[in-house]
């Protein structure tokens, strides 16, 4: 009876969402909401008096800006990379706000657990850092990328292939999959333990001990929900810092 | 418990809510065009707004405040340096005044010492004079007393000799004898 109650849904049933209106589903809603929330927060922050000590929404916005500048840009690109702060800031906030709905009741779905948004962002980053490479180094960017300085001539063919695949092909793929797979795995874990808890609570059974056992997957669900808060932040941070590293490496290959 | 169940249903009634049947739609790793379009559009709008509007406004405010704070710090540093210079100046003046005071005290002390020595010398001289005068007076008094005693003793001795011998002794002899006895 319990086995019947605990029937895991098809993967698409926990990932694909019915359109709210034509070509606009929950993922699109979360993406739009992420952009709108980001814009509203920074708009409100910008309207506050900048001369006094920041608090509330302005404090939040300034803390985020300083986190990106001090924690990511200065660490990976140095002072010359500060011009990239708005892009990296947008990237971090957008990814974080797309990740967080995975633990928000009613929404309960990270937009990045679908392939589209991570893939778009990774491709955008790929275009940006390659563009920066060509802009700063010209055509030599390609040779610097596939043949790092100091590689013996005999090894150049082998290293060239490895570096080309690593830097040009694998990077956007790894950026996409890292974000997408982490968020998808988290979402599936939450669904799994929620289903297990619900199945135990609502099971029509004569075994008296079965229903109290629901506390075990429920605790796991609570723990994983808290863990997903960390994962949401961490994945946004990792994506952003790798972007900064790629752009910094393309702009200044000597580093 | 009912609330928990409702929350769980929110998370688990996905298939029903989504209206998606098993196996419907592309695979879970295939990007859907509508999600791609909305995601890309949202991010591009957000990034452009951030680049040209939101970030510059916020950053300008931050920079203005930081500049204000830096200016306040510099003003505070200048005030501190000025205060330190004033303290150093005051301390230098204090050292000079102390040195001047010490010199004056030394000079006054030397003057006082000289005056003290002078007065002491004068006092000692006066004391010596007075002591000499007193000694002379004492010697004179002693001589007068001795003469009176001599006269009294001579008188008594003469009278005693007279009583013993029945004759009046010679005054010169008595006086010589009294002199000899008193000189012992």
Tell me about this structure:
The complex is a heterodimer of chains A (255) and B (184). Chain A is mainly α and 255 residues long. Chain A contains 8 helices and no strands. Chain A has helices at residues 2-5, 26-47, 56-76, 85-99, 116-137, 140-146, 156-202, 215-251. In chain A, helix 3 (56-76) packs across helix 4, helix 5 runs parallel beside helix 8 (215-251) and helix 7 (156-202) runs antiparallel to helix 8 (215-251). The longest helix of chain A is centred in the last third of the chain and has 47 residues, at 156-202. With 184 residues, chain B is mainly α. Chain B has one domain (41-183). Chain B has helices at 2-12, 14-18, 33-165, 171-183. Chain B is rod-shaped. Chain B starts with a helix and ends with a helix. The model of chain B is unreliable at 13-19 (pLDDT under 50). The chains are: A mainly alpha (255), B mainly alpha (184). At the A-B interface, helix 2, helix 3, helix 4, helix 5 and helix 7 of A face helix 1, helix 2 and helix 3 of B.
């Amino acid at each position: 009876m319990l086995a019947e109650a605990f029937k895991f849904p098809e993967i698409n049933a926990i990932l694909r969402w019915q359109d709210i209106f034509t070509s606009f589903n929950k993922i699109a809603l979360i993406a739009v909401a992420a952009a709108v929330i980001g814009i509203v927060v920074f708009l409100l922050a910008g309207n506050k008096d900048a001369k006094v000590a920041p608090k509330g929404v302005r404090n939040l916005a300034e803390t985020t800006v300083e986190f990106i500048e001090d924690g990511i840009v200065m660490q990976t690109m140095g002072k010359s990379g500060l011009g990239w702060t708005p892009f990296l800031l947008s990237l971090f906030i957008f990814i974080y706000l797309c990740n967080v709905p995975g633990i928000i009741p009613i929404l309960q779905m990270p937009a990045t657990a679908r392939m589209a948004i991570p893939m778009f962002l990774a491709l955008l980053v790929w275009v940006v850092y390659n563009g920066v490479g060509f802009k700063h180094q010209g055509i030599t960017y390609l040779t610097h990328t596939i043949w790092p300085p100091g590689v013996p001539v005999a090894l150049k063919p082998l290293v060239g292939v490895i570096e080309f695949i690593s830097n040009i092909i694998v990077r956007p793929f790894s950026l996409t999959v890292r974000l997408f797979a982490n968020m998808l795995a988290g979402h599936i874990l939450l669904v799994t333990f929620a289903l297990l808890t619900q199945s135990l609570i609502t099971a029509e059974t004569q075994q008296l001990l079965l229903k109290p056992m629901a506390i075990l997957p429920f605790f796991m669900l609570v723990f994983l929900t808290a863990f997903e808060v960390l994962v949401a932040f961490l994945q946004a941070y990792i994506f952003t810092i790798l972007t900064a590293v790629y752009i910094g490496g393309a702009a200044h290959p000597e580093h | 418990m009912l609330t928990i169940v409702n929350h769980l249903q929110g998370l688990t009634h996905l298939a029903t809510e989504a209206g998606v049947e098993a196996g419907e739609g592309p695979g879970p790793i295939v990007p859907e065009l509508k999600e791609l379009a909305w995601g890309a559009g949202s991010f591009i709008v957000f990034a452009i707004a951030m680049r040209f509007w939101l970030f510059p406004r916020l950053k300008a405010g931050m920079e203005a405040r930081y500049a204000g704070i830096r200016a306040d710090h510099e003003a505070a540093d200048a005030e501190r340096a000025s205060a330190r210079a004033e303290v150093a100046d005051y301390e230098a003046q204090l050292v000079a005044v102390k040195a001047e005071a010490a010199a004056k005290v030394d000079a006054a002390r030397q003057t006082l010492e000289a005056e003290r020595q002078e007065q002491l010398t004068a006092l000692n001289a006066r004391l010596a004079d007075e002591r000499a005068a007193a000694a002379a007076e004492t010697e004179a008094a002693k001589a007068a007393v001795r003469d009176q005693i001599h006269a009294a003793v001579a008188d008594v001795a003469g009278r005693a000799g007279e009583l013993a011998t029945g004759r009046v002794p010679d005054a010169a002899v008595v006086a010589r004898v009294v002199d000899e006895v008193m000189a012992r």
